[in-house]
Design goal:
Blueprint: H1 2-15, E1 30-34, E2 37-40, H2 41-57, H3 65-89, H4 95-108, H5 113-122, H6 127-149, H7 156-170, E3 175-184, H8 191-206, H9 211-218, E4 229-234, H10 240-243, E5 254-259, E6 263-273, E7 279-290, H11 298-314, H12 319-326, H13 330-333, E8 338-342, H14 349-357, E9 367-369, E10 372-385, H15 387-417, E11 421-423, H16 424-436
Antiparallel strand pairs: 1-2, 1-11, 3-4, 3-6, 5-6, 7-8, 7-10, 9-10
Helix pairs in contact: 2-3, 3-6, 6-15, 7-15
Length: 437
Amino acid sequence: MNKFKRLIASMILILVPAMTLAAPVELDRVVVIVNDGAILQSDIDNAMKTLKFNAHEHQQALPEADVLREQVIDKLIMDKLQSQEAERIGVRIDDNRLDQAIKGIAEKNNQTTAQLEASVRSQGLTYSEFREEIRKEVSISEARNALVRRRINILPAEVETMGAMLAKETNKNVNYHVGHIQLRFNDEQSKDDVEKAANALVERLKNGEKFSDLAIAYSKGPKALEGGDWGWMHKEEMPTIFADQITVQGKGAIIGPFRSGVGFHILKIKDVQGLETVAVTEVNARHILIKTSVILSDDGAKRELNDFIRKIKSGEATFGELARQYSADTGSASRDGELGYQTPDLYVPEFKHQVETLPIGQISEPFETVHGWHIVEVLDRRQVDKTDSAMNNKAYRILFNRKFNEEASAWMQELRASAFIERLDKQADEEAADNDL
């Protein structure tokens, strides 16, 4: 195996252009062999220019030249390994996506794209080199995200524990206006019957019946004659059975039924003060996914999807029929391609952009993601109060970010440990030292 790797190294060296018979010029040279790829001196030079440009933009100091070179080479090795992984799983960054990334960099630096381009050129970089460097970084980022995510496992109990900690901190200064209905156990009804009656009341409340009317008619609690109204309270002022159930629910939330030693309880958050509520837009979309193969090219996939659009518009077939028959996403294909109500952030960037910007009822042009080629149609959008779930989402993000950083570091170490890496500049230095002796 080692002989084979050295053969690759020799072949790469042979492929470096020889000197021409014209005036002597400095040739590019291979500095590091990384699996079946190479890092050239020009790669190092360009990376040094980019690093110095970024340091200048952010007024950061840099280490000594020798130290900086070693750091740059080490980063280029890891970038090459990750780029090879991106190529292996088929990550591609088209020019539109690249333009969006560069626009984001310019905005972060409080610049227009034209001003960023001028800044790049002023530091001795060509704009095309800068663009390709950003394309590579975006590609690496997507590959790392896709591959590291698979290694992360977050248990529901972890989210629940973290969410409870966050809710406790959030609820310190929140004031709740609480309504309460209590159905007591008695000798005339079984406990199952009382639970069924409580569930029936919850359904009636969800269907729009007035809480105070149902409380007066059915509640056996201490505030029944006041329509179950406990008024405004902080959590530390509430009965424990109330405080245990209220986390970060928003105005209008119905909680329960839940059981205590005396019966079943239903709470309503009539109003909230001091709680930052979270409303999100959920999108119900449907799509058809076509995956490329050795038989089906990118152009072939686009032609096939464009033909689907033509058939749908002409009435030859429905979106659902084509999704069931052709979509490679088997989970949604069985539902006519429908994905259900989801927040756009759950989707990969290209898909997210489509469901956020498409008008309802319009079918997109074919577009590519890491999963393949798609067409998508937005069926509906709705605003949803996600105050409660937002806390769990925040807890999940905290846990995910912690584990992602840990797993990303482990993944890169494994990637490097299993790679063939040979430093040719080190060999040249050692040979020169031996000749001096």
